[in-house]
Prior knowledge:
- Helices cover about 15% and strands about 20% of the residues.
- By secondary structure, the protein is an alpha+beta fold.
- Strands 1-4 form a two-stranded antiparallel ribbon. The chain has a two-stranded antiparallel sheet with strand order 2-3.
- A hairpin with a 4-residue loop joins strand 2 and strand 3.
- The longest helix is centred in the first third of the chain and has 5 residues.
- The protein is globular.
- The relative contact order is 0.33.
- The model has no long low-confidence stretch (mean pLDDT about 90).
Amino acid sequence: MVIKKINEELCFGCRLCVDVCTEDVFQFDEERRKPKVKYPRDCVACLFCEAWCPVGAIEADLTRPRKLPEVM
């Protein structure tokens, strides 16, 4: 998993991380109004979620092994 944490105190539930994730890693918890990492193994470390978060609530850890996209 590349996503180290989601700071729930900073996150205000804008859903941008869910919308920009090309691999559908996140799921939005309607009850808590916060995103959660549902499929961590599908993360390809594109860092879109971290880059697009308007409040910097997502922290990625690039030192962890990650799955790379297959080359055809």
